[in-house]
Write a structure and sequence with these properties.
single chain, 143 residues, alpha+beta, 2 domains, three-stranded antiparallel beta sheet, two-stranded parallel ribbon, 5 helices, elongated
Length: 143
């Protein structure tokens, strides 16, 4: 005869079967979260099956965390600034998309005027010199 009081809950049994994982692996899986946050998750039991073996620290500096803290500063020594419309124009063509858009396009073209920051996005069915030139002439007329 089975004693119901001695049966363990399924979640507890699943937790016992769960494999222990290193702190470094959890640090990576949790998107390089701060070690203090992971300690809080463990002590306050905020995450089910957060089983860690060995030390509760990374043990060394995490290369990805160091790179993530680098700051990118704008170029401050640049003295040239556009003084006229269409003096400097950025063009980017993206494609070939694996999925066709609602308008049957497989490419799109972005044009940005640096002076005014005016920009357009055009969806293209084909990528060719004639089509991109036609789109640019339309941008030139609008700007």
């Amino acid at each position: 005869m089975v004693n119901i009081d001695k049966i363990q809950p399924a979640a507890f049994i699943a937790q016992l079967k769960q494999k222990l994982t290193s702190f470094t692996t959890w640090h990576k899986c949790l998107a390089y979260t701060r070690t203090e946050t992971i300690h809080q998750m463990i002590t306050e039991n905020l995450v089910d099956e957060l089983n860690i073996y060995r030390e509760l620290s990374i043990g060394r500096l995490c290369k990805n965390c160091i790179y993530g803290k680098y700051a990118a500063y704008p170029y401050s020594d640049s003295k040239s600034r556009e003084k006229d419309i269409l003096e400097h124009v950025y063009i980017d063509i993206w494609g070939l998309s694996q999925v066709q858009s609602a308008g049957s396009a497989f490419y799109f073209m972005i044009i940005i005027g640096s002076f005014s920051s005016y920009q357009i996005v055009m969806f293209l069915k084909f990528k060719s010199v004639e089509i991109t030139l036609k789109v640019f002439k339309g941008f030139h007329a609008e700007a």
